[in-house]
Design brief:
The complex is a heterodimer.
Chain A: H1 2-26, H2 34-63, H3 72-94, H4 99-108, H5 110-127, H6 131-137, H7 139-145, H8 148-163, H9 169-196
Chain B: H1 11-15, H2 17-29, H3 32-35, E1 43-45, H4 56-61, H5 74-78, E2 88-93, E3 99-102, H6 103-107, E4 113-120, E5 125-135, H7 136-143, E6 151-156, E7 176-180, H8 181-184, E8 190-195, E9 198-199, E10 209-211, E11 224-230, H9 237-241, E12 265-268, E13 275-276, H10 284-287
Parallel strand pairs in B: 1-4, 2-11, 5-12
Antiparallel strand pairs in B: 2-3, 4-5, 5-8, 6-7, 6-11, 8-9, 8-10, 12-13
Classes of the chains: A mainly alpha, B alpha+beta.
């Protein structure tokens, strides 16, 4: 089911934002600032994909559908791909490749700083997304490294929140979704910690891994 | 009918600026413009050679007009039923004869002018727009403000029934903007009623909109229903919403950044790379003298 239906569907879905972007630009559907349009489409896609990757484990626990974990890498790499596109439009069209301008922007404007932070967090995650790297790092170290996705997601939401002029309802929406997804994990982690707490002179029963 | 309109221009012609300008030049050269003085208003290009006219679709499809929604396409989509007929403008405050005027009554004695201005949004994008309107100075002089009048305040319509954005509190409604008297009477300041030779579309602030080309676009209130002359500096909507980000003067100034983004460059709609923002939006020669001695960083 995963390999034959879900993954191909996700590959198609991953291409849709870019296809829409190109279509809208080339058919003159886009009014006004076309670069902003590109940045909105790619930016929304990064955030949406990050939220989806964070939803995988909760969904897996709630539905018991373990196989779902196999789509997470694809969604995560989609996020990274669109983050690269997003960054490219900024470097090329906003800053005309000027490194000094970019550094000034980072220094002066917090929303640029957190944007770069989010991107930098995603880079090692993309690099170590392969099976080879999971083996090289070992499951535990790989998992710890990939907690950077939490930083990336928070930084991404702040980036959006801090750049809009007045209407914060879109960034706030992402913020609420992120809050729910993180709260669920925190709650489960607290549950695990509670269940491991045992009196000093009683041997704990080995619990199966969550 | 307020505006003496030139023969209807087909939509296809409007988007091709070369056609638009060639047609006007041809008519002028053929002596038709002269014969029809007052029929085709004189055109003044207050822009440079590399300032190409922004296409009609962009000017009328990419708008900040939060009364109709905050997405750039919302004003066009949501203002189709907006009623602009029998428009009334109240003139109040420090003025000889406070009264409520019909829009035609207010504007009729003046000859419309057509001016091509750059419009620079505070969000760092810009357009080049051929406005049709009346110099504000003519209207002010006709209204005879008293010697106490130091400022002119412009209020936009308040009608949540027609303007869905006003049902929320994203800004305090109605939208209010204001100018110092010398800014209001400056030759560049105009009250516009049309663009590209056609009546102003609803999403652009029909039927009456203020344009002050050396200031950020938000200074130009739309759909004006009240002009009030005041002694003290009025509170303006964006300044109320975010006083550290939007000031009273709002002069285009590449050296004074918005707290959250640079104002040194702007994206001209239709272009991909940014271009340098000019001091006072390129109108420094005409307006810099209004601000000698004023600290432009403090009075942003």
């Amino acid at each position: 089911m995963i390999t034959r239906v879900v993954k191909p569907a996700l590959y198609v879905a991953a291409a849709l934002p870019l296809a829409w972007l190109c279509f809208a630009l080339f058919t003159g559907l886009v009014m006004g600032d076309q670069v902003k349009f590109m940045q909105h489409v790619t930016g929304d896609t990064v955030l949406s994909c990050l939220m989806l990757t964070l939803a995988v484990t909760p969904l897996r626990r709630l539905t018991g559908w373990n196989e779902i974990i196999r789509v997470r890498r694809l969604i995560g790499l989609t996020a990274f791909w669109y983050a690269c596109l997003h960054l490219t439009t900024y470097v090329v069209f906003d800053q005309s490749f000027s490194l000094s301008e970019i550094l000034t922007d980072i220094r002066k404007h917090p929303w640029v700083l957190v944007g770069f932070t989010a991107f930098l967090c995603l880079v090692p995650l993309a690099i170590t997304s392969t099976n080879g790297w999971i083996r090289r790092l070992g499951g535990k170290r790989w998992q710890r490294l990939h907690r950077l996705v939490y930083v990336a997601a928070v930084a991404g939401v702040l980036h959006y929140l801090w750049l809009v002029k007045k209407d914060i309802h879109y960034p706030l929406l992402y913020g609420v979704v992120l809050f729910v997804l993180l709260s669920v994990r925190i709650w489960w982690a607290a549950e695990r910690a509670r269940s491991r707490r045992v009196p000093v002179n009683v041997k704990a029963e080995p619990k199966p891994a969550a | 009918m307020l505006i003496k309109r030139p023969p209807d221009i087909a939509a296809s012609e409007i988007t091709d600026e070369a056609l638009y300008w060639n047609r006007r030049e041809f008519l002028k050269a053929a002596g038709i413009g002269v014969a029809a003085a007052g029929f085709l208003p004189p055109v003044d290009r207050f822009v440079r050679r590399d300032d190409k006219l922004t296409p009609y679709e962009d000017i009328t499809g990419y708008n900040n007009y939060y009364e109709f929604g905050t997405d750039k396409g919302d004003p066009k989509a949501n203002s189709t039923k907006f009623r602009t007929r029998s428009w009334k403008v109240e003139v109040a405050g420090e003025v000889k004869r406070p009264a409520v005027y019909d829009l035609d009554e207010l504007l009729k004695p003046s000859t419309p002018v057509e001016r091509v201005y750059r419009l620079r949004c505070v969000e760092a994008w810009s357009m080049v727009i051929p406005w049709l309107g009346i110099p504000l100075r003519e209207i002010i002089d006709r209204l005879e403000p008293t010697s106490n009048a130091k400022y002119v305040e412009f209020t936009t319509l308040l009608d949540p029934q027609q303007m869905p954005g006003q049902r929320g509190r994203i800004l305090e409604w109605p939208y209010v903007e204001a100018l110092r008297m010398d800014e209001a009477r400056h030759p560049l300041t105009i009250l516009v009623t049309g663009l590209y030779g056609k009546p102003l579309p609803n999403q652009n602030g029909a039927p009456l909109r203020l344009i002050v080309p050396w200031k950020y676009g938000f200074k130009g209130g739309k759909s004006i229903v009240k002009i009030r002359f005041t002694e003290r500096q009025p509170m303006t909507t964006w300044n109320i919403a975010a006083p550290n980000e939007y000031g009273f003067y709002a002069n285009v100034n590449p050296e004074v950044d918005h707290p959250r983004w640079s104002q040194a460059r702007e994206r001209r709609v239709g272009e991909f790379f940014k271009r340098k923002t000019l001091m006072f939006n390129g109108y420094a020669d005409q307006v810099a003298s209004l601000y000698t001695g004023l600290d432009l960083r403090k009075n942003f």
